[in-house]
Amino acid sequence: MTENELSYKIIGAALEVRKYLGVGLLESTYETALAFELKHLGFNIQQQMSLPLKYKEEIIYNAYKIDLLVENKVIIEVKSVLEINPIFQAQLLTYLKLTNLKLGLLINFNTPLIKNGIHRVVNQLP
Question: At what angle do helices 27-40 and 3-21 cross, to 10 degrees?
């Protein structure tokens, strides 16, 4: 399955989570519910995956945490905020570069319309 095909399924799962839970909950709640939905669809999910950082000669373990990694292809950054700050997209792009992956989804569940809270971030996607 391609990154675009996966993103379509992920967005469908996010819509289901939002429909069921509504707005105003913690990010961790939405993340756990989305992980549940994606596992139910049969996807391989890694939640709160640690990424190390090499700083000079030192490896710093657990420097970064990826909210969700789907099928080792798509990174999901879950938010529950009033508005998306550009730093969130930069953060997701950094994760994509560190993992050499192509596609990430920034999903903000705290919006009146969930479709307005979904943002694609790409790293050298054709």
Answer: 120
How many structural domains comprise the chain? 1
| CA-to-CA separations, 14 to 18, 53, 54, 69, 93, in angstroms, rounded | 6, 30, 33, 14, 20
Per-residue model confidence (pLDDT) at position 62: 86
Containing structural domain, residue 11:
3-122
- Residue 45: DSSP 8-state: E
How many whole angstroms from its chain centre is CA 19?
18
* Cross-strand pairs, 120: 105
Distance CA 37, CA 89 (A): 24
* pLDDT recorded at residue 125: 53
Give the pTM: 0.93
Distance CA 117, CA 81 (A): 10
> What CATH number does residue 54 fall under?
3.40.1350
Mean pLDDT per 10-residue run, the chain (126 residues)? 95 97 96 98 96 90 94 98 94 94 97 94 78
